[in-house]
Amino acid sequence: MENYLDALGKLKPEERWPQARRWIMAEELGFYEELREHEPLLRFPELTLASRFVDCDEILRRHDLFSVALYQPKQGDYFMAQDDTAQHWREKSIMRCVLDFEEVPRIRAFVADKAKSLLASGKGDFDAVKGLTRATPIALVQEWFGYVDSDADDLCAWSYWSQMDSFWNQPFDANPNSAQIIANSQAGAVALGKYMTSLVQKRSAELAAGVKLEDPVSRLILLARSGGLNNFPPERLIRNIGGLLIGAVETTSHAVCNVIEFFLGRPELLERARAAAGASDPTAFDGYAFEALRFRPAFPYFFRTVTAPTVLGRGLEYEQQFETGETVFALTHSAMFDESAFVNPEDFDPKRGITNSFHFGLGLHECLGRAVASVMIPEIVRQALLLPGLTVDPIDTQGGPVPESWRWRWPA
User: Could you read off the pLDDT of 114-150 as tens digits, one per residue?
Assistant: First the structure.
C-alpha cells in the first residue's frame, strides 16, 4: 500500500491540503504516525500541520506567539476570541465564578436524570442527536443555567450556526457554503441577542422584587448590578450569557456521539464499558469515556495564527522557522498517540487519565466549561450504554463535519 506522504507528493500543490484534511477528518491514525515519524511539521501553502506532542503543547501554551486571531471575525469582542487581554482575564474569571465548581456533582445528577427521561420518552426508536445528545445540554442551558422561557429548537439553531461558522468555516476550510453559514450565524446572533436582552430584563425584575434565583444567568446579573465589577456593562453581560449556550451544546453532542459509536463498533470494549457504566459509582465509567474520546475526539486539531517570527521543533532535526501571519494546526489527535507523551498509546487504557490530553484544549484558551463537560459527556454516554439491546444506524453527518442525526432502536 502506498504511504500517505508519497500519495500527497503525487498530487498537485493545490490538492494536497484538501486531501490531508480528508485523512484528518477520517481519523487516519496511520497518517498521523507517518507524520510524527517523517514530517512532524508538514507545510502546505495554506497552513502547517504540527503532529508531535511537544509542538502541539507549545502552540497551545504559547498564546503570545500563537494567537486565536482567526476567531475574531466570527466571535467579535467575545473574550475567548482574545488572547491575554484585560477583558479576557476579567470575564473568564467572572464566568468561572458563576459556573460554581461545587455544583458539578449536582449537575451530573441533573444530566443523569434528564438523559434517562429523554431515553424513556424515545420509546425504543428515535433520533439520538435531536433526542439525546443535543437535547440534554439544551435542557441544562434552559433548566440549570437559567435560559427561561426559551425555545429548544431556537437555542439549538443559534448554537449550531455559531459553532459551524467559528470552527468549521475558516479560510482554510474553503467551504462552498461559507456565505450561507455566515448569514445563518449572524441571523442567529441577532435573534439570540434579542432573547438575552428580554431574559436579562425579566430576571432583573424578579431579582429586584426579592425573588431568590441561583442560576448562572441570575448570578451574572447580580454581579453586574453590584457595582463591584469594572468594565462589565450590559452588553458584556449579554455577550457572556450567550457564551453559556454556544459552548454547551454542539461540542457535547459531537463528543458523545463519537464515544458511543466507538464502543458500539468494538464489542469486547463495549462489554467492559457497560460493566463500568453499571457500577454503583458513576465516576467508575469516566475513564472509559475519555479514553474513547482520545481515539475519537470531537476536534482533531486547534488552529492558531503566528504573531511574531518563531520556530517549532527547536533544537530538533526538523526545526522550522515560522513568520508572522502563518496558520499552524496543533494536530492534537496525533499528539495523543505520541509515544513520547503516552505509554503504549495504541492500547485502550481507561486508567490513563486526561490531564495530558487535549480534550478541553490547553493553556489560556482551555475550555471554560471543562468542569461541567467532564461530567456531562461521560454521564450521557453512560446512560446510553445502559440501554439493553441497543442497535443503531450509521451516523448521518449530511456531508458536514458533525453528527446531524442518528437513529437508535432498542426494546422499549
Answer: 999 999 999 999 999 999 999 999 999 999 999 999 9
Each domain of the chain, given as residue ranges in start order, spans 4-409
**One-letter amino acid of 357:** S
Which residue from 50, 45, 55, 40 is spatially nearest to 14, judged by alpha carbons?
45
Q: Are strands 125-127 and 302-306 parallel, antiparallel or unpaired?
A: unpaired
The one-character DSSP state at 179 is H
Residue 172 CA to residue 329 CA, distance in Å, equals 11
Render pLDDT for 166-188 as a digit per residue (tens, 0 to 9).
999 999 999 999 999 999 999 99
Q: How far apart are CA 385 and CA 259, in angstroms?
A: 10
C-alpha torsion sign, points 123, 278, 287, 261: negative
**What does the alpha-carbon distance between residue 198 and residue 368 come to, in Å, rounded to a whole number?**
25
Residues 6+ apart with CB under 8 A from 98: 216, 219, 220, 223
Cα separation of the two ends of the chain: 46
CATH entry, 4-409, from 1.10.630.10, 3.30.70.940, 2.40.170.20, 3.60.150.10: 1.10.630.10
150 φ/ψ angles, rounded to the nearest 5 degrees? -105, 160
- State the DSSP string of 232-301: --HHHHHHHHHHHHHTTSHHHHHHHHHHHHHHHT-HHHHHHHHHHHTSSSGGGGHHHHHHHHHHS-S-S-
Q: Determine if residue 159 is left, alpha or beta; phi over 0 gives left, psi from -120 to 50 gives alpha, anything else beta.
A: alpha
How distant, in Å, are the alpha carbons of 146, 293, 296, 384 from that of 267? 40, 17, 16, 15
